[in-house]
Amino acid sequence: MNYVRPKKKLGQHFLTDLNLAKKIADLLDVTPHKNIVEIGPGTGVLTQFIIAKAAALHLIEIDKESIEFLQKQYPSTAFNLIEGDFLKLDLTQIVGPKSFAVIGNFPYNISSQIIFKVLDYRGQIPFLAGMFQKEVAERICELPGSKKYGILSVLTQLYYDTTYIFTVPPQVFNPPPKVESAVIRLERKKDYTLECNEKLLTQIVKLSFQQRRKTLRNSLKSLNLPDNLREDSIFDLRPENLSVDDFIQLTKRIDHGNISN
What we know:
By secondary structure, the protein is of the alpha/beta class. It has eleven helices and nine strands.
């Protein structure tokens, strides 16, 4: 098999620019973690530049044609090739208990879900680099005060420092997507264990942005907050006006049921 058909249902847009692929792979040089997982390697355009950087390389691919192609192109000892859906896999069964970096030209139709799964494994994933639809990349890296700032921004930035690296035009893909793309980098914060109820924090962030045009006083009604807490001025704000640290402090106040923290 010398050719793999990009499949729309899988959100496949194969990168064709080798210089760009090398630039993405070179982002791994800033992390000491050489246990690497590549999501959706496709025809291995990015993989070929990662192999030399990895002590252990795990490829996760759902497309059977891509798997057959990779098996013919590379020796079986080059990497651990797993057929499956990244979103459904238990990553500890693949990489064990060790830390690992994540990289990829991520399928656009599941890119946000990939980030949420990375957050679930944040204890093992100190680093991520890869290609996203530009709009999603901007949302991940956005700062407070913007309409792009939302659930994905806050939940990612709670645990990771996010960096927007560069924008990528459609013509470097086969087939070209109808939108621009972007490469970003996530580096886990040194102190990523939060001093608050993280489950409650996630609930507050999601409730807040589900009704982002409303003030927190209205969007958080379902939490049945006591009157003395709801009188605090922070509840006059909309969620896009709160920083990541503001959400942490708000969670502490709500968890304790008062505003004296």
